[in-house]
Design goal:
Layout (H helix, E strand, L loop, with lengths): L1 E2 L6 E7 L10 E9 L3 H12 L2 E4 L8 E9 L5 E4 L2 E9 L8 E11 L3 H17 L1 E2 L4 H4 L7 H6 L3 H10 L9 H11 L13 H11 L3 H7 L2 H24 L2 H4 L3 E6 L2 E6 L7 H4 L4 E3 L9 H13 L20 E3 L2 E2 L2 E8 L2 E8 L5 H17 L1
Parallel strand pairs: 2-5
Antiparallel strand pairs: 1-8, 2-8, 3-5, 3-7, 4-5, 6-7, 8-16, 9-14, 10-11, 12-13, 15-16
Helix pairs in contact: 2-13, 5-8, 9-12
Length: about 375
């Protein structure tokens, strides 16, 4: 069984909360469609093309057909269209859109190469997920990284060189030529930056390499765009959150330790088949903070686990930024540990299963699919 073979196999539709879109406001609101385009590249392209400030409510998978919203301030036309992207002005808002404005995400997904003998077992597992829910881990889109560690993992430990190397290896290939060769040179000659210089894909990377040659590490890091620093921070803090959640869900009083391991990027998480009904209300509430630069209200036992995971990294909670980035505050956010897919429906036709369901903002449909695949493989083994 396979999923996301084609972008059209994974369709996501963002639903905003009521009252977000108004008749008047400082920001234009657009409803948009993209296919096989990275969200951050799209944001950068729109801002550069129209000289406008653009903010997306949420980040959507590249390999998908996504219907979503964004806000814009500046001289931007009411209708935009180019290859694999279109957007139409539908109203206004008094503020930029953010993830807090999303009510839910609706998904329509195609699972391919499904064997007839697998169909009933897949339906059985889907019914169990529908009834019992699944853990709200961050999936690999959020916690993946280039190289051996996270940008902020290095930065917070004072290893600025490896932080910069991770940044260079994380540069998106969208809109840039010869990026693979450049990254190969970064891996091979990072300690000899003059040998990388002939292969830079743009002036942005050229400036970094020239400063690297002069060992101006802090200046390079200060020059990284705030949105990229925020994403790097969220990758690391989400990884720490996943580790703490995995430890919590392993506790006998929560899951009876009945479950299995699932690999997300370079770390195995524990996935229970179900949770203790007596703790369901707590685990589905927003009492589980993703660590940031401030302490947020927390389920006490989880806060201890969070502090322990950060302590293993030589860090404390709340996370303290380096002095030269003291103006960068990322408060973190509260998140549920356990979620339930709403309106889950499915049917089988011509070796394919067609799925549809809704998830709360921030929950990953790809994780639900990975859990489904893993449970199916465990059934085959046993």
């Amino acid at each position: 069984m396979k999923f996301k073979v084609y972008p059209g196999d994974f369709i996501v539709e963002e639903v905003l909360k009521r009252g977000i879109i108004k008749d008047k406001g400082r920001y234009k609101i657009f409803k948009a469609k993209k296919e096989n385009i990275e969200t951050l590249y799209l944001k950068k392209f729109l801002e550069k093309t129209f000289g406008a400030k653009v903010s997306f409510a949420g980040l959507k998978d590249k390999k998908s057909v996504s219907y979503f919203y964004f806000s814009a301030k500046g001289d931007i036309p009411n209708y935009i269209s180019f290859k694999n992207f279109s957007a139409e002005h539908i109203g206004y808002s008094d503020k930029e859109l953010s993830g807090n404005d999303i009510e839910k995400n609706n998904f329509r997904i195609v699972l391919r190469n499904v064997k007839k003998e697998e169909k009933e077992k897949i339906f059985e597992i889907l019914e169990q997920i529908k009834k019992n829910g699944f853990p709200n881990y961050f999936d690999s889109q959020r916690v993946s990284h280039e190289g051996r560690g996270f940008f902020f993992e290095y930065l917070l430990k004072g290893d600025f060189k490896n932080a910069i190397k991770t940044h260079l290896l994380s540069i998106s290939p969208e809109g840039k030529r010869n990026i693979r060769r450049f990254k190969k040179m970064v891996k091979k000659y990072f300690d000899e930056p003059e040998r990388i210089l002939p292969y830079v894909p743009s002036d942005e990377e050229k400036e970094i390499i020239l400063k690297l040659m002069k060992k101006k590490y802090k200046e390079i890091i200060r020059g990284i765009k705030r949105i990229n620093l925020k994403i790097y921070f969220e990758k690391f803090s989400s990884f720490i959150w996943n580790k703490a959640v995995s430890k919590l869900l392993r506790k006998k009083k929560i899951s009876k330790r009945e479950g299995f391991g699932l690999r997300i990027s370079n770390f195995f998480i524990f996935v229970p088949y179900k949770i203790n009904e007596d703790l369901k209300e707590i685990l589905t509430s927003s009492l589980f903070p993703v660590p940031g630069t401030e302490i947020l209200p927390s389920y006490p036992e989880f806060e201890v686990l969070l502090k322990n995971e950060l302590k293993k990294e030589g860090l404390s909670y709340p996370i303290k930024m380096p002095d030269f980035l003291s103006d960068l505050e990322i408060k973190g956010n509260l998140r549920e540990i356990w979620v339930f897919p709403e309106n889950l429906e499915y049917y089988f036709e011509d070796d394919k299963i067609y799925l549809s369901f809704s998830l709360p903002p921030g929950a990953y449909a790809t994780l639900l699919l990975k859990i489904l695949l893993r449970r199916l493989s465990l059934c085959s083994l046993g």
